[in-house]
């Protein structure tokens, strides 16, 4: 990379606004080596989309190679609980295990399941928004953005209401390991959360086996007991992934989306004037404009060429979702927020075999949340002060979003 381009995911200034750097990266090439992260950066939409579908790359290499054979160092033994839990989830499984587990989960996580949840999602969103307005404002992130998806995924899994306060802290600790070069303190928190979450879910699975319900855990138990096609570890890891992926993105899309709207008052006014007409395209545009998942990493299993640059086996690529979603080769006026944009194949939910299974549920939650906060009988929300960003870059979100009404 040119020394003038500052791809610095540990810099607060970069995390706050990575898009100027992305623009420069796209101008420099299609595959750019980053010494600081030890990765090939892929900034263009067409390449990101293609590589997500290319089976010469994968989320893991362990289904084909050992660590030493692949030129990598095995993780420390004390991190094993994290890698076991993460490695058996859909996000990191590769074929043939990925297809087997995804088919079984998809049978339980159907459009009908999402449809059945819709009334409850809208009710919960309305109640959370109502409390925010009744208080005259507050932290939109902690009072609306966080509780809604946690409650929804807990309802889906069948987690008792009294236990739901455990979920968000576990998820936040585990997701710290998805950042670039996490330190040992982050790893220790993640391992502790993995052990606790794993133990909790195994206990809940045992209860549901004795007394099944209509929840997703009961459906996964049925898939497990039907010839043992789903191991208990895969069941546990699937539930953890559904929580982590199923709400981290929704939380940050909600808060980041409102921060975007406050910086575009004319677009916010148009959305508030007729939310029913604009909301569906607005949600898609907010996901494109400032995606919560900025980077998706994959390993090169077999040598591949991108734009004339050979990426050798054993190297890692960083697919820059945030850059791809602002690529002018695919999106007209990509740096402009256009809430009625219809040609919008953003890559926020990924592509290929790892396309987000929970995308329909995420869209439902986002529509319900924004709809409840924009309802005609509610006063307009106003920003109290400019928010600060969390330290993480890969999963990028705000610390808080203080509003008043």
Structure description:
It is a single chain. With 405 residues, the chain is of the alpha+beta class. Helix content is 51%, strand content 8%. It has one domain: Orthogonal Bundle (Cytochrome p450). The protein has helices at 12-16, 19-28, 45-53, 80-87, 97-108, 111-134, 140-145, 147-157, 167-175, 184-210, 216-225, 232-262, 265-273, 275-289, 321-324, 359-373, and strands spanning 32-34, 39-42, 57-58, 137-139, 295-300, 304-306, 309-311, 316-320, 382-383, 402-404.
In short:
The protein has 16 helices and ten strands.
Task: Name its key features.
alpha+beta, globular, three-stranded antiparallel β-sheet, 405 residues, 51% helix, Cytochrome p450
Structural class: alpha+beta
Shape, per Cα inertia axes: globular
For the record, what is the CATH homologous superfamily label?
A: Cytochrome P450
Number of helices: 16
Main sheet makeup: 5 strands, mixed
Tally of individual domains: 1
């Amino acid at each position: 990379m040119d020394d003038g381009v500052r791809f610095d995911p540990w810099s607060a200034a970069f995390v706050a606004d990575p898009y100027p750097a992305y623009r420069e990266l796209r101008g420099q090439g299609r595959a750019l080596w980053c010494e600081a992260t030890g990765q090939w950066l892929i900034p263009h939409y067409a390449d990101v989309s293609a590589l997500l579908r290319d089976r010469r790359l994968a989320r893991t290499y362990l289904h084909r190679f050992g660590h030493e054979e692949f030129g990598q160092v095995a993780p420390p033994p004390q991190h094993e609980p994290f890698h076991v839990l993460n490695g058996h989830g859909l996000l990191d499984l590769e074929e043939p295990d990925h297809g087997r587990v995804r088919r079984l989960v998809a049978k339980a996580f159907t459009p009908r399941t999402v449809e059945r949840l819709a009334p409850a999602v809208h009710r919960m969103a309305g109640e959370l928004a109502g409390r925010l307005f009744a208080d005259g404002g507050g932290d939109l992130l902690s009072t609306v953005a966080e509780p809604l998806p946690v409650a929804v995924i807990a309802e889906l899994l069948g987690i008792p209401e009294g236990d739901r306060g455990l979920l968000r802290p576990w998820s936040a600790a585990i997701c710290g390991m998805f950042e670039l070069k996490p330190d040992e303190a982050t790893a220790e928190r993640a391992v502790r959360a993995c052990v606790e979450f794993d133990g909790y879910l195994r206990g809940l699975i045992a209860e549901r086996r004795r007394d099944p319900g209509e929840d997703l855990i009961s459906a996964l138990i049925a898939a497990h007991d039907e010839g043992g096609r789903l191991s208990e570890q895969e069941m546990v890891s699937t539930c953890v992934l559904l929580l982590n992926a199923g709400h981290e993105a929704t939380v940050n899309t909600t808060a980041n989306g409102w921060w975007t709207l406050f910086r575009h008052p004319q677009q916010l006014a148009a959305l508030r004037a007729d939310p029913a007409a604009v909301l569906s395209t607005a949600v898609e545009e907010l996901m494109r404009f400032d995606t919560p998942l900025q980077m998706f990493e994959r390993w090169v299993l077999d040598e591949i060429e991108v734009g004339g640059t050979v990426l050798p086996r054993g190297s890692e690529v960083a697919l820059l979702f945030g850059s791809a979603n602002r690529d002018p080769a695919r999106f007209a006026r990509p740096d402009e927020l256009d809430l009625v944009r219809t040609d919008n194949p953003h890559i926020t939910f990924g592509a290929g075999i790892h396309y987000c299974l929970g995308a329909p549920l995420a869209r439902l939650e986002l529509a319900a949340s924004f709809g409840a906060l924009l309802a005609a009988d509610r006063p307009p929300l106003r920003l109290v002060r400019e928010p600060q960003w969390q330290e993480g870059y890969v999963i990028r979100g705000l610390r808080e979003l203080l509003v008043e009404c």
